[in-house]
Amino acid sequence: MDKHQMRTLVETLGEQLKLKDGVGEFFYLKYIEQSCDRSNEELFMLEDLNLLAEVLKEMDMSYLIETIKVHDLHSAQILQNLIAE
Q1: If you ran DSSP here, which 8-state letter would residue 64 be given?
Q2: Which helix (H) or strand (E) holds 48?
Q3: What is the DSSP letter of 59?
């Protein structure tokens, strides 16, 4: 996944979360679940944690790590460390 695709994915997740309704939350949770699934070759966002950390930091969306933690604790911990640098 290149930087543009990662930014689009993170932006989409943030938009769904900001809807603050049941439908938005449902799509956010499903989309992030699919994005953390290693078998999903199109959406898997945890392959390049350095790039993901860079995008999360640039977009001020590190709060997404809390949900990533549910699906992949180890990757979430690495992301937290990368963002803290």
Answers
A1: G
A2: none
A3: T
- Which residue, chain included where needed, has tokens 């543009």? 4
Cβ(61)–Cβ(9) below 8 Å: no
Length of the chain, in residues: 85
User: pTM for the full model?
Assistant: 0.90
Interval 15-46: pLDDT, tens: 888 887 888 888 899 999 999 999 998 889 99
- What's 37's DSSP letter? -
The whole-angstrom separation of Cα 17 and Cα 73 is 20
Q: What gap in Å lies between CA 85 and CA 82, rounded to an integer?
A: 5
Q: 85: how many CB neighbours lie within 10 A of its CB?
A: 6
Contact 85, 37 (CB under 8 A): no
